Amino acid sequence: MTDPTPDAWRAVDAYFSDILVGHDPALEAAVAAQHDAGLPAIEVAPVGGKLLHLLARISGARRVLEIGTLGAYSTIWMARAIPADGRVVTIEAEPRNAAVARANLDRAGVGERVEIRLGRGEHVLPTLEEPIRDGSEPPFDLVFIDADKESNTLYLDWAARLGRPGTVVVVDNVGRGGLVADGATPRSDVVGTRAGLALLGGDPRFDATALQTLDRKGWDGVAIAIVTDAAG
Ligand code: DHB
Ligand code: MG
Questions:
Q1: From atom 5 of ligand 1, which residue's Cα is the shortest distance away?
Q2: Which atom from ligand 1 is nearest to the alpha carbon of 173?
């Protein structure tokens, strides 16, 4: 088997996106609005958005937690996967991002099922615990972690606490262009990503794998986990 050249893997990504995702005006409008507002173009690739969508459907998710909204591109994908009376709670630290996200969600017709919680994950996540503990809200069925990589262990801990055995957990950007395999790098995002993977591999509350990805965002990876019975 030959190693992929950039031209070849870009062509494969374009082909997969074309044939399996296709033209999607609401998602394209969301990306355009995000770009116009000056937000970074780091939303998941179309094939990655569809993966989140399918994982939500496969798992029968009704309640989704997202950490890191950006312009709500991935949020739209997941919101479309849940029933009309389901809920996506998405946490965003940047008010400007949240404003773009709100407009994108409303334009995509899923605004009513999405609650944007403004603030840093470390501050917002604890506020989600009480309604789950007291039974007034069910736990989350799917958690997508896509924020500051330095906090991945904190976010994974919260995913186990706010989920239940069977909850699906997805962590974006676990490849970091190959740097993740370098245990000596001082880069804080890589250190955080490695700590998150070590937790996924060693903490009995999770069973996990990770796949490398090569899509329009380049070489990266995604970790997929389930919360086990050990989370009680
Ligand atoms: C970055 C963050 C992301 O979530 C992503 O998908 C790609 C890049 C970043 O901070 O560089
Ligand atoms: Mg990401």
A1: 42
A2: 6
Residue 3 binned pLDDT confidence (cut-offs 50, 70, 90)? confident
- How many angstroms is it from 231 CA to the middle of ligand 1? 29
Tell me the C-alpha distance between 112 and 114, whole Å. Answer: 6
Residue 70's closest CA among 213, 172, 176?
A: 172
* Phi, psi at 164, each rounded to 5°: -150, 165
Domains in the chain with CATH codes: 6-231 (3.40.50.150)
Nearest CA to ligand 1 atom 4: 146
For residues 103-132, average pLDDT: 98
Using a 6 Å CB cutoff, which residues line ligand 1?
42, 146, 172-173
pLDDT tens, 169-184?
A: 999 999 999 999 999 9
- Tell me the CA–centroid distance for residue 18 and ligand 2, in Å: 21
- How far CA 130 is from CA of 47, 139, 166, 200, 206, in Å, comes to 35, 11, 20, 25, 22
Determine the angle formed by the axes of helices 25-36 and 95-107, rounding to 10 degrees: 160
From the CA of 217, the nearest ligand is 1
Q: Identify which ligand lies nearest to the alpha carbon of 220.
A: 1
- 147 CB burial (10 A radius; 0-12, 13-18, 19+): buried
Per residue in 80-90, pLDDT (tens digit) is 999 999 999 99
